[in-house]
């Protein structure tokens, strides 16, 4: 949505007096124009978080030199940090099964440039959406997953992700549980949309569980994938009201609307480096 | 909200062809004017639910005679049913501890006649709100609860509830777990407000649990109390958005706003006989 | 979502004692199994509204005979009524301009059979989505609209709609104001999605108006099109929270998510005969 | 919610490179510990906004000296600014008529110290709540307002507000239109709760207007009072879903729940110096 090219610096470090001053002082010294800035101090853990957008053309050097010059200060502050360039599109690999709502939704956002990304390929355990994906000019890979071939299948997914130099993997209602290897290989890079308001209704058939319990709202959760099923850091959640007249099939239908919206919001936060993972939680600078 | 006196018939029975026709036929036969009517068929269990509001002055007889005349049809349909009179105020006993938000809220609604009820007394394990409650002309009973006196304390609560001929007991953030005896004595008559979006975060300190898990919405649940803690039929729920900057104390503060609203909505549904319990779930005809 | 074929009877008539009884009595007499039923009395105007779903295989005759047999009772009750068959798909003509979010969303719902419809054609004043629409096997008509050719253009839209025997016309962010002739030709058949929470911000550039006024929520409204711009009966609305940091471009982006969801919900209510128009308002039996 | 005393600096100034750096540099220089910080650049007007919470005990001087020392920098940056002390409670004068929901709600929040304020008096055009207010130990002033005495009445309100050294005036469903003199005397100090989602349904009887238009959500708006009725800068808004079955009386009842919540949220933002007025809009740093 920004008209101009900008860099996004996101970082965390132990809290102390003077962090904002020193970081923004460094930027100001070089004439850097800060477009957007967010800071958060976690009182409990004493960790400090920040995110800054800086106009690229306000700085007298490029990103490589920024990194070089910023490194000493980052070292003094014991920072975990990165800086990215809005002109470099993130490469998002989408994994789907046989439900279209998230896939159509993501491709519409990609098509309209609402999501400023490349989709180097779509991977699926079914061949259902080959035509639709290929019509958009995006390569489609059918990688079947059976009880017997899981190791090979996920090795193939990993190979494809590496081959296309993916930054982010999105499980857009993929309906398969990734192998621990894959989860561990890409921490903070794999996003899932779970069709319940976590931590309620972990695992399979959450709408059936919700129906059984008689809840009055159902939800969806976008989270980073970790080794433990549906236990990763939560990025975004939302809910929708239901009532006694709604069957499981109705919930599935309503649920799709929040699933795709929550996934799209969570993905955008992730792509814009608005999400900083902190233990099993997230700081999300909206 | 109705200008005129009306009767509310609520019922459930095994589903079959012709239920609505036979019940509304009975009413029409006597000239009964139906103000509001709701029906629900549960496909899974084959049970049928209904709620009807009938203008009192449109019928040529009083409630006692209605009951007498309706009984044969209800028998044929194997109905669980009841009919109540809007002119007879329900008697609601409120239990509180030391948090005022739900108490102030309920008394404001009682004062303004938004809730068409009598509050024959307020019971508390602390003496904190005696003055406030008594200023409203409502008797206040201090029944301390300690680890040692629970049996006697809940026996006293039961005695007071019986003495004032209570219809409904409301745990307005009462912070004590009722004895199984009390729960079993009044099924479908005791309402609790739990400060989480159940089934997430059952039991103590749900906001601490929510903080730990890093959820992005927190909620409140109004449910009927059963022997199993926080497992009773859910009447109403709602949520509010939070983010990483919110401490547990912030969540407690935000939470109060949904707790009191959800409790008030759930209580109103209950008082207007809009809630029909079905196993561990509810049908709520709003 | 119903497994079985059913008929939907929707009707309104002057209120009087015995309506439900007589209508459901007629159905019960023929063994009709009512799956879902909703009733509403408008106190102010004295008009009565109803909607009933009846299992097709529970009746001993087909729809034509139902209509024949029901007509006398409908006449006595002075009913406006219709009955439709879930096995007959409604024919929905979609009009779009150059924004894809509603189009992708509708086609995903059509593809997955969430919307039980035929889309006999898509009409657009631009050629942008020809490929996408035709890939789905749906005919695409490019009908350019210029200041000079409006009359002919809308005559052509009308001709196409008639040619494909359309039931419903959906303006899926069509961005053109239909001619009065077209509006008058299809009352209660043309749905629009307006990108504001009506009645706020009528007409052009509602997000710019919202930005100027500094509102804290933005919305979308699905309504029937009438001769007066953005004044037709409202079917569905929703809102999303924004804040001071959101530019007009951000609002446009957020707005798309509610626009497509609100349009899809409103369209489903319409297609399932859940919407009864009453003056400039709607009864929506969800 | 903060355990410790802190100062809140809120400011706006023309945007330029280096603002954050210079302001936080000044604070860091004196060892100031920043607890919370928010910044916003308005792209359209080129104005920059900020809010900082600084731990009082981290600074080597008191507020008076902070002001003295900060003044030169503020001058260079052409800032509008103020700094307040969390240990000094704001003095909030509440104006009510005959509806209790906002009054009970505010007093509950004051009682529980959720709102860290003094309420030096309540003023009403009716005597209805004298007992309730006085029971809380708060002076109550009955200032009747008639078509003939408006000038004197508002002069008396002004006199009382000055006498108790009020900081903020809250119209808690006051139902009277203040005189232009009063509005102009306290810009950004008088908060109103309007019972509609502005700009829809300005003026009297908004729920009747909403009923007539057939909207599917109703709302409430907390805004600063200006000379123009219901046109002042919006601080906070929210909505609640209704449907065709809701009468105006139902809307009034539902509306109360959002009115009191929206007012309380808006008031808290205001009291914590989270609201910066900018033309007819607000920046709200939540």
From TrEMBL, chains A, B, C, D:
GO biological process terms on file: 'de novo' IMP biosynthetic process; one-carbon metabolic process
Family: Belongs to the PurU family.
Keywords: Hydrolase, One-carbon metabolism, Purine biosynthesis
Swiss-Prot/TrEMBL catalytic activity: (6R)-10-formyltetrahydrofolate + H2O = (6S)-5,6,7,8-tetrahydrofolate + formate + H(+)
Top EC group: hydrolase
InterPro entries assigned to the protein according to its UniProt record, in alphabetical order: ACT-like_dom_sf (IPR045865), ACT_dom (IPR002912), Formyl-FH4-Hydrolase_C (IPR041729), Formyl_transf_N (IPR002376), Formyl_transf_N_sf (IPR036477), PurU (IPR004810), PurU_ACT (IPR044074)
Physiological role: Catalyzes the hydrolysis of 10-formyltetrahydrofolate (formyl-FH4) to formate and tetrahydrofolate (FH4).
HAMAP family from the UniProt entry: PurU
Gene Ontology MF terms in the entry: formyltetrahydrofolate deformylase activity
Pathway: Purine metabolism; IMP biosynthesis via de novo pathway; formate from 10-formyl-5,6,7,8-tetrahydrofolate: step 1/1
Active site, per annotation: 230
EC number: 3.5.1.10
Gene3D superfamilies membership: 3.30.70.260, Formyl transferase, N-terminal domain (3.40.50.170)
Matches recorded under Pfam families: Formyl_trans_N
Domain of life: Bacteria
The protein's name in its UniProt record: Formyltetrahydrofolate deformylase
């Amino acid at each position: 949505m920004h008209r101009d090219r900008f860099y996004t610096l996101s970082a965390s470090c132990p809290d102390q007096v003077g962090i904002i001053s020193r970081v923004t002082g460094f930027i100001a010294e070089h004439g850097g124009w800060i477009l957007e800035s967010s800071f958060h101090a976690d009182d409990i853990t004493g960790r400090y978080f920040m995110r800054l957008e800086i106009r690229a053309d306000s700085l007298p050097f490029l990103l490589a030199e920024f990194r070089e010059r910023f490194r000493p200060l980052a070292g003094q502050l014991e920072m975990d940090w990165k800086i990215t360039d809005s002109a470099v599109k993130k490469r998002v690999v989408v994994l789907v099964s046989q439900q279209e709502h998230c896939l159509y939704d993501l491709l519409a956002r990609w098509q309209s440039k609402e999501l400023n990304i490349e989709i180097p390929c779509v991977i699926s355990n079914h061949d259902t959406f080959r035509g639709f994906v290929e019509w958009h000019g995006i390569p489609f890979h059918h990688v079947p997953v059976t009880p017997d071939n899981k190791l090979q299948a996920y090795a193939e997914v990993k190979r494809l992700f590496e081959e296309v130099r993916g930054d982010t993997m999105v499980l857009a209602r993929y309906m398969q549980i990734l192998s621990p290897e894959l989860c561990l290989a890409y921490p903070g890079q794999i996003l899932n949309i779970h069709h319940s308001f976590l931590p309620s209704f972990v695992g399979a058939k959450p709408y059936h569980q919700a129906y059984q319990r008689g809840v009055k709202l159902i939800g969806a959760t976008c989270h980073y994938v970790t080794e433990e099923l549906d236990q990763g850091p939560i990025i975004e959640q939302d809910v929708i009201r239901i009532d006694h007249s709604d069957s499981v099939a109705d919930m599935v239908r309503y649920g799709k609307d929040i699933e795709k919206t929550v996934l799209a919001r969570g993905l955008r936060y992730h792509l814009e480096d608005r999400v900083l993972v902190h233990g099993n939680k997230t700081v999300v600078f909206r």
